[in-house]
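Help! Submission page says 'invalid entity' but I think these are all valid:
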Amino acid sequence: MKRPEPVQVVKQRRDAALRALVDGVPYIQYLGVTFDRRGDELTGVLPFDEKLIGNPLLPALHGGVTAAFMEMTAVITLSWSYLWEDIESGSLDFDPSGGTRMPRLPKTVDFSVDYLRSGLPRDAYSRARINRSGRRYASVHVEGWQDNRDRLFAQATGHFVMPQRR
Amino acid sequence: MTDPDKLKLARQFIEAIPHSRDLGMQLTEMNDGVAVITMPYDEKLIGDPETGVISGGAVSALMDTCCGAAVMSHPKNLAGTATLDLRIDYMRAAKPGQQITTRATCYHVTRSVAFVRATAYDEDAENPVATATGAFTVEGSA
């Protein structure tokens, strides 16, 4: 029987792939969004920053920031699940120096955000669930929360066109 | 008609939004439920590194601000507003390097909800980049 790979090797490969995916998108860097990984599960993290405020009187997060954060979570989670097998098999090898040509990201067709309560001036988290992912289209639902996992401040649903394998 | 003092306050409010300022948004029109806002192209907004096309999320931020401005400029809404829901349809990629312009119309207002439609263009005004429909809260009415 083949011996299982050492855990550090597996983690390093997965983290390098995730980093390559996320670091390649300037807008994700601008918002300051990062992704926590537990196995194949991703959680988006949006650290609070003054520049993200949409209502200075409350103050509250900008609705557009919430929408963007949720959409980025959907896009990255979708790419991550689409690339997962290639990452695991090692056929998609991410060069830590950044030389790897990144796979194309899914394209958003539509995105609908439901604002449940105002975004507080503190960190926000998000997780996406892929409800359907075919060869061409995908439908994704995203939940966003702040202090309590059960008290969502926003949820969203969107449709995406998947990149064609090259 | 919208009260000019209220409009001036609403304009100042929109122009003071930290996130909108950070994205370089400029309010060019705001009156009677219609608002027009532009956003310059910036490399930090890129969502597709291969093509330089700006992220849908940046377009969302512009749409949300513009829809909110349209609601605030409507005579039946007396104070601020908050987004209840916003749906965006992305028709095509915006041309890299071009400014995005959004025009939002608040076409119906009840005692509690304002309904808004918006369209975003790059320099090709015949071909929208995205459209949005949203529902916003109405504040300050009895």
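Support: the input was valid. A stray whitespace character was the problem, and the output above is from the cleaned input. The beta strands of chain B are 26-31, 34-39, 46-48, 53-54, 83-90, 100-109, 113-121, 130-137.
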